[in-house]
Design goal:
This protein is an alpha+beta fold. It has four helices and three strands; from the N terminus they run βαααββα.
Length: about 60
């Protein structure tokens, strides 16, 4: 199962821009852990397991 950036943002309860920053930016620059994504032409696919791992890597509140 894979998600688009907008689907991943909705599932994670965050913004599209935050997901894009996690994919494209470094952790040092954005303050977010890196989110793995795959390219499908001009679009990105985020595997369910990668989204879950990213969420688990975020700091606890």
């Amino acid at each position: 199962m894979a998600y688009t950036i907008s689907e991943a943002a909705e599932l994670a309860g965050t913004s599209v821009s935050r997901i894009q920053k996690a994919i494209h930016g470094s952790e040092a620059a954005t303050g977010l852990p890196t989110l793995r994504a795959r390219r499908l032409g001009r679009r990105y696919a985020i595997l369910a397991k990668d989204l879950e791992a990213w969420l688990e890597s975020l700091p606890e509140a």
